[in-house]
Amino acid sequence: MRVSPSASRTAVQGVYGDRLKVSVSAPPEDNRANQELTQALAQWLSLGRDGVSVDAGHSSRDKVVAFTGVEEAELRDKLTELVQRDRRRRGE
User: Fold this and answer.
1) Which of 4, 36, 7 is nearest to 20 (CA)?
2) What's the pTM?
3) Which tens digit of pLDDT belongs to each residue from 49-73?
4) DSSP assignment, residue 66?
5) Which domains does the chain have, with CATH numbers?
6) Does 90 score more than 80 pLDDT?
7) b/e map of 61-73 (b: 16 or more CB within 10 Å)?
């Protein structure tokens, strides 16, 4: 993931290279941006609150995010749909 903290709203911004780009409204201080990222992803992908965690890159814009409680193929489908919804929202 590529994360932009302190944005005006939390939203998918599309694809950034080989990563999903997400803006979060929370600032990066005190792990707040990471928490907002994981909560938003869990909600968008219909996963449990504990189903998403930041594995690496806690203090970086580039993060490795782990997903539990979902099969890889299903996760790929959900992420693809998430990006497609974002594209439709932006009129692409």
Assistant:
1) 4
2) 0.89
3) 899 999 999 999 999 999 998 999 9
4) E
5) 2-87 (3.30.1200.10)
6) no
7) eebebebeebeee
- Specify the DSSP class assigned to residue 3: E
Q: Which phi and psi (to 5°) does residue 56 adopt? A: -150, 155
Q: What is the 3-state secondary structure (H, E, C) of 5-63?
A: CCCCCCEEEEEECCEEEEECCCCCHHHHHHHHHHHHHHHHCCCCHHHEEEEECCCCCEC
CA dist., res. 62 & res. 81, Å (int): 22
Q: What angle do CA 81, 3, 60 make, to 5 degrees?
A: 140
Residue 75: Cβ-neighbour burial (10 angstroms; 0-12, 13-18, 19+): middle
CA nearest to 34, candidates 72, 73, 64: 64
CA distances (Å), origin 58, targets 2, 31, 33, 42: 12, 8, 9, 17
